[in-house]
Protein 1
Amino acid sequence: MKSQKVWYITGASSGFGLEITRAALGNGDKVIATVRKDPAKLEKSLDFHPDLLVATMDVTNESEVNDAVKKAIDHFGRIDILVNNAGYGFMGAIEEATNEEVKKQYDTNVFGVLNVIRAALPYMRKKRSGHIINTSSLFAFSARPAWALYGSTKFAIEGISQGLAAELSSFNIKVTAIDPGYLLLNF
């Protein structure tokens, strides 16, 4: 018999996050799905699934992240698979991007991932098992005009993922960076 996994998925309101949430629930697993706003909308779109817990959280707010992870642990007792999916793509030439725009891109796509990892990892390490999946991008390896800043955040995720995998191998925790390419986010 298949054992039920507990997924923690950031950025679950649309796109990959929503589709991963649907797939995990469809596979008979439990899911903590995080959204920045309107959790009722996600719950309704997933037919108020009994194995779904929706938490409101902005990955750039460390206290919200810690609270949401604790809520997940209190509700399901563990996190088996952490999917760092929350992020966004800022498009613009490097010389035209403001310092504020660049910081916002990094706060979400890099420091937000680190916030979630630091909050969830103690629970996974204590259990001595788990899998962390970080959403990177093909642009981490092949930046395009107007996408260099976004690509640089995803290049950082690649480095973090590689280093984290080495740090966690003795704890039986795997780390994977997924690198989607061009796609239409019209799920």
Note: DSSP finds five helices and six strands in the chain.
Protein 2
Amino acid sequence: MQEPRIVIIGAGLGGLVLARILQIHSIPSTVYELDVAPDARKQGGSLDMHEESGQFALRTAGLYEEFRRRTHTQGEAIRVLDKNGTVFINYAPENGEGGRPEIDRSALRNLLIASLDPGTIVWGHKVTAVRPLGEGRHELTFAAGNKTMVDMLVGADGTWSKVRPLVSDAKPKYSGISYLELHLSDVEERHPDSAALVGPGVFFALADNKALIAHGGRHIHLGASLRVPQDWTIKSGVDWSDAAAVRDILLKEFADWSVELKDLIRNCDGTIIPRLIYALPVGHCWAHSSGVTLLGDAAHVMSPYAGEGANLAMLDATELAAAIVEHGDHIETALTQYEAAMFRRSMAAAEKSAKGLEMCFAADAPKELVHFFAALH
């Protein structure tokens, strides 16, 4: 019997983990990715890999040792401040490492890409339409007009998934938080005061429904976040490609914050990217549809304020791969088994993420976050 043709839409962490584990078990798959190359766009900052999810996925994928060679020393340090620069939490694990090692998202993605057989990922293929053909098969149409047939379809294509409408009418909603993605490069040489302020790990400065949240190290990846209306980036009248103008509006928004904190904005590099935080409803699920499923943000996009997104996507992929391996040609059994467990897991994570958002943007922030981290450490 011919093996079912498994197609994964999206070469993010979840889609790549799924393809890698299937490859280990000699199950072919194809990953279609809209980016034309691995380095076509920035992949974000640092990720902490949780033992029960991200690390478990990497062990299952046979890449754990390679992953550990790429992690950051002292990347698990935590600093929590208020807008005046008062430090409430300054935690560093013993010997510089705890149970959640940090790695650059780009480094992790490149590791997964390199682990796949040539031709597994088809770059520069943007899916524009998906059509059910019956009996679990689907037809994909790409931006160039070419089409392909699929026996089993996995949507790993993020927040605005093209595959999700096959199984669910739910659409992500604006969370109330917008943020500007900033970077400070080579900070130990160029901005040593900012390097010392942020430290080597994760950094929170919170107050007044605003936040500066960063990952430190050689480079600082910073999000300047605000609780604002959804159209704030439009009505502000700013040319978001004009870095100087963007810095000016942010410095006005954070005008009563300490000089040291404002220097993180003042000294950032020239590329500043506005982003809005969206989330699907907590507990998002669907009735199973033949031959198709979702993983990662396509299934359960949530706010990033609990650090669950990447880890959850990788665990989704690991459990989906395990179900496919276990049930062989019985695709529907594999998919329904995977979805039942994923729905329960993602609901708990979404609740945690929603709570994390409220802790970061509470009226008395950083009080609740300080209590949370104090209880952990």
Note: The first strand starts at residue 6 and ends at 9.
Protein 3
Amino acid sequence: MKSSFAPTVALVLLPLCCSTLIYGQSDVETRAAEISQALAKAHVAWNTKLSSPGASVQVKEVARQGSTVQYHLYVSGLPSNELYTAVSWPVTQKEPSALMEGISLGKDGIVICAGRTPEQCGDSSKKDDPIEFTFNAAKGEPYRLALVAGNNKVAVVIVPDPIMAKDKGCALSVERLLPHFELAFFTGSGFPPNSDVSFESKSYEEKHPINAKADSDGKLQFILMPFVNGRHKGTTTVKSLGAACSLRIEFEWGS
């Protein structure tokens, strides 16, 4: 069963502290920078702070045709006797909204429409039907999903078509936090713990230094606004400078 849309619901996004965030253009106004930072923090919080203690999601790809990808979700750490609402927060929306209601957890925690009572989603003639969460993915586009039943909740971020670079144990990836890549969110791993890591971004002939700080686990994150004044679309390249590993990422932005 493919997922379908339902009315809007409220979902609290928890604050995130201690993020390593910078801005890619020196002429960005203060307010725009604050909004961008808040959006990045909310994105990180969805994946790290929203789930109930001990709850997790395993994502299994079940079909892919072109840019359309389908997944089954397997939940652990949440009660199986609850009915859940699936909540989605696409990059095209300012706030999360309900995707489907009356969801159940089946065998091994698979997310299903049981179809056994009027409150459960699904067709009574096709009981315990696994839900195929289906996305038509752009490059680097994250899909944020959560299952919520009162205080029981679990959240996950799925990137069907990731943009990533790897070298010598290091990795760098970028996600679009707005539809046309107006805001790019980078995460990295495998760097020396607590080290300073330098990158350079280039859009057309504009170059900007990026100074990031790896945490005690060798992970880092930063945001970038790649748009160039007077241009409606373009390509941005981000590469590491002076690091033991050589990383280079390229992505297209604009209409």
Note: The chain has a mean pLDDT of 89.
Protein 4
Amino acid sequence: MSTALINGVTISYSDTGGGGEPVVFSHGYLMDSAMFDPQVAALAPEYRVITWDQRGFGASHASSEFSFWDSARDVLGLLDHLGIDRAVLAGMSQGGFVSLRAALLAPERVRALVLIDSQAGQEDPALAPAYEQLDQTWREHGPAPVQDIVASIILGPAGGPVDYAPWFDKWAAADREELRLAFRCLMDRDDVTSRLGEISCPALIVHGTADAAIPVAKAEVVHAGLAGPADIVLIDGGSHAANLSHPDQVNVALLEFLRSLP
């Protein structure tokens, strides 16, 4: 991984440096750039694939409050650092929140969007108290008491295709204060649903039918609201991190979409 000072924050990133069109992947909450290893392997032969750790995750750190608008400026700043004028922005869950905001901030920089198990709105009020309780337990006692619940929400059921162990190791080592800042960013985000009509670039929406965090209906709202050409692909049995639980199906959809861009 390389690093760059962007907006006063040291951002960790990986760049395959390939000659094809650049595709930037932004990860979900409690994840990091490694969650896109299956996509990097599939796309790198044709595309320049860039992954990065958002503030508070992986090797990128957070020292003060921030919003997804700040993170959107981070990804645009990363493009500047790499000398990239336009790129396809792909994001899973909160990575999609970031990518949507980047498209609103700088539409001329976004060649296309790929939104994996994401949405445009705020957290479901019915679920928010439970998430707040999980976060409080994590901060007070560490991840161990709640990590199985959290992993099942993000990665799918225990014993499924995604191995929990590597993520448990990362969560155990994570700084709890940085996670608090990232959690508040997640839970206090604004709703950009009413602004989807401002986004006219091509978009691919990929969503797992077994997503336990964001229902398919939320993805359909985004699909209906975007102004540009948008396709939606449902991954049968896919978890919230469908790109990890069902990488082959997701990679096929990604490659078909990228190859179709004019």
Note: Residues 68-82 form the longest helix (15 residues).
